[in-house]
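note to self: dont lose this again. the chain is below, predicted strucutre after it. 361 aa total, dont forget to put it in the shared folder this time
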Amino acid sequence: MSILEIFMPSEDVAMIGDVARRWLDDVYVSAPNGFDADKWSEMAKMGWQGILAPEGQGGSGLAVGTGLMLAHEMGRALVVEPFVSSAIVGVGLALGMEDLLCGLADGARIAGIAGLFGGITAEPSSEGFRLRGTARFVMGGAELTDILVIARLPDDCEAIFCLQANAPGLIRNDYTSVDNRRLCNLKFDDVAIGSIIPGPIEGRSVLIAKARAVHNAALAFEAVGAMDHCNEITRQYLNERKQFEKPLASFQALGHKVAEMYADTELARTMAAMIITPDGTPASSELEARALALITLVSRTLGERAIQLHGGMGMTEEMEVGRYFKRLLYLSSMMGGETVPRHRIIEDLLADAESVQKDKS
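---
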């Protein structure tokens, strides 16, 4: 989505965002166990899970940017349900599977994503294929009904498979993330699957590349949403707390730190908007890596600064800022941390240098 669309969304998109923010502010409370079935059902009734699904399958058929705007609001409200994986990435990968799309759009089915960044292979067999490998940090736990798997075939092409979450041979290890989200590790131990989700090889590769970009963009916008709320509660805290009979916000040094937090957030927002274009075309690998490297760095430093400005109270579980810092740490890790994007940048630069050298020779 373009920078202009971030700051000046269309009237319809802005209305969806306003409704989402009001509901999340007034009604939503993060479930202690990491998933609230009633809240998930309410989100589905408002059309959020089907925001990107085709109209023929019960969705709204809106652009990726609308889903990213909802991801921003989810981050701002510390939503723990697997909205990004199921309603944004899952819907994009399930195109062509009408039954699954209908289930995802109405919230009756919840999809986890495995192998989006490698780790799973598919070997041809008499039944169709056998899946082997491991997927870590899969969003969702016991509530998952389906697993969308991206696996590498013997010819080095990638394919998309869909299987039930309780498929024979699929071993699931559930746990809770630092920000109280349900996650699981999946081990594919010769899992039998009948067929690939239909579609030409070229179409599959484009779909998977777009899913990776949408995944990273959604996490980035979720992080920006969390940063926005961090800024709000930090500014409010400094206005309320007093020292020497003056609000802390009146001290210039603290005001400068808050200004830096706001500036960093706008920089992260701008970089998040560069990961994918308005029509859903992924940015170049180098540009995406640069955006993720900056956003992960800003997420951590902004969270640390927010806690510092809250003083010792910021380290307690009762303070809201600590929970947002945990969310930012989680999202930074899911985007590759501060090292993986930098390694991607280096690899791209080395590949460019090698290409230039070959052209000269």
